[in-house]
Amino acid sequence: MGVPGAGKGTQAVRLTEALGVPRVSTGDILREAVQNGSALGRKVRGHMEVGALVPDEAMGQLVAERLGRQDARDGFVLDGFPRTLDQVAILDRVLGSLGAKLSSVFLLTASERDIVTRLAGRRVCPGCGAVFHVNNRPPRSAGVCDDCGSALVQRQDDREEVILERLDVFRKRTLPIARAYAERGLLTEVDGAGEPAQVFVRLQASLGNA
User: Fold this and answer.
1) pLDDT digits (tens, 9 = 90+) for 47-80
2) Is 101 a catalytic residue?
3) Which residue from 38, 60, 87, 201 lies 20 to 30 Å from 27 (Cα-Cα)?
4) Is 141 among the domain residues?
5) pLDDT digits (tens, 9 = 90+) for 20-41
6) 3-class DSSP state of 22
7) Which of 42, 155, 159, 184 is catalytic?
């Protein structure tokens, strides 16, 4: 878990590759459930189509099904779950039913100033999905994708006012989860500032100490 723009997804992918275990992303399992057309998938789709949050119990069922697969038997990296204190309790039940438990919880941190600079400068290509940054990874031609030549755009949630709202939501919803895991002795904070490779070195060191 971590502040918006801290690189949670990037670091989760790196960590799963290093450990040889699957990354369990709520976004991925939601899309898979909808594509499969299962009863639960149809239920989830109904919520997603109207822009509503998927109920915690439904998310718990999806996570339970995913963690019960063979490839997750030796471990997994959760990315995007739990997001609420109620989901913490649901995850406890899921893990208990599987005879598993969390070994570590990582919180990627960064200053508000760094997050605003990082996200507000991000530009994405609507054509091929390439990501650039006005300062850290500018395209060869301003405003144009190096790969396919499409005009780059700024995502709505990368605008400064939206970023500040997302940070406020993080403080209200995610920090209580972090505190709950800290009380269990599972939480380790990792500095999320700098290049992804630098952050991963810190994450690996923290994993070894956890």
Assistant:
1) 777 667 788 888 999 999 999 999 999 999 999 8
2) no
3) 201
4) no
5) 999 999 888 888 888 888 888 8
6) coil
7) 155
18 forms bridges with which residues in the sheet? Answer: none
Pick the catalytic residue: 31, 43, 45, 166? 166
Question: How many residues are given for the chain?
Answer: 210
Based on the residue annotation, tell me whether 122 is a catalytic residue of this protein.
yes
Largest Cα–Cα distance of the chain, in whole Å? 54
Q: Determine which one of 31, 43, 45, 83 is catalytic.
A: 83
What the block records as the tokens of 26 is: 């709520």
Amino acid letter for position 202: R
State the angle between helix axes of 26-36 and 39-49 in degrees (0 to 180), rounded to the nearest 10. Answer: 110
From the candidates 23, 122, 123, 202, give the one annotated as an active-site residue.
122
Look up 83 and say whether it is catalytic.
Answer: yes
Query: Distance of alpha carbon 204 from its chain centroid, rounded?
Result: 18
Which range marks the domain in which residue 47 is found?
8-110+168-200
Judged by phi (left if over 0) then psi (alpha if -120 to 50, else beta), residue 175 lies in alpha
Mean pLDDT (the chain) is 91
Residue 8 known to be catalytic: yes
